[in-house]
Amino acid sequence: MSDKRFYTQKPTLNFNADDVWTAACFAQRTNGTYIKNANAEEWKGHAVDTNRQLVDWALTEGKYSNQITDEDREQGKTVRKYYQALTFKILKGIKLSEFDNTAMLIANRDIIDSNYDVAVMASLPSCYERSIKRDSVDQRITFANGGYVGRPGDKVTHQVEVLKCFYSQKWDTHYVTGITEAEQVFFFAYKNPVDLGSTIKIQGTVKTHRDNSTQLNRVKVI
């Protein structure tokens, strides 16, 4: 005979998808970022609620029902449509990352009945904001019409706006993509990080032309 004293049945979830998307956007707006763990030390001793907690309370306790705005509802629809639209990438033969594929599947559900789905959705407004910025940068690079600069071996000096900067642990260097006012794109390796959106003056040697960008060697920021 089983002992039921230690058995607790998990509550069954059955949320309207739009309500969860709204709650997720409310949580993102409230925290201003995605907070996964409310570590007091990490947040300088201040008590904070994770996005998941805010979502749960908004959905199950109505604790924040009077703080949810029409803007949260509209943003929820916008974020959901963004991930639903990933379906078209699949139709074009583009392979999605495992995370994006999961987000797409969740976005196409009208009823949310899984704790896992709620947890993923709590993070998606923040992911959406990063993706929109990335998509905008990628479009600027793809459609830049300034053309290539110089010929291999030429030394060039230009002022660029920093669009991308990512660190390669393997090569212990930062890879930077920048664009001039004339929409000429440069790509180069640099030992130090540079701030996204900043404008820097660079000097380097043209290595090659590829992917609508001029790639440089031996770059200095001057």
Comma- or semicolon-separated keywords:
alpha+beta; 5-stranded mixed beta barrel; two-stranded antiparallel sheet
Please explain how this structure is put together.
The protein has helices spanning 17-31, 51-60, 70-84, 86-91, 98-107, 115-142; strands at 15-16, 111-112, 155-168, 173-179, 185-190, 199-210, 213-221. It has 222 residues and is of the alpha+beta class. The protein folds into 2 domains: 10-142, no CATH class; 155-221, Nucleic acid-binding proteins (OB fold (Dihydrolipoamide Acetyltransferase, E2P), Beta Barrel). A hairpin with a 4-residue loop joins strand 3 (155-168) and strand 4. The longest helix has 28 residues, at 115-142.
Number of domain modules: 2
Strand order of the largest sheet: 3-4-5-7-6
Query: Could you say which structural class the secondary elements and strand pairing correspond to?
Result: alpha+beta
The largest pleated sheet is described as: 5 strands, mixed, barrel
Distance between the termini: 78 Å
Mean pLDDT: 91
Low-confidence stretches: none
Rg from alpha-carbon coordinates: 23 Å
The amount of beta strand, in percent, is: 15-25%
In total, how many beta strands? 7
Number of helices: 6
Shape summary: elongated
Helix content: 25-40%
One letter per element, helices H and strands E, the order comes to EHHHHHEHEEEEE
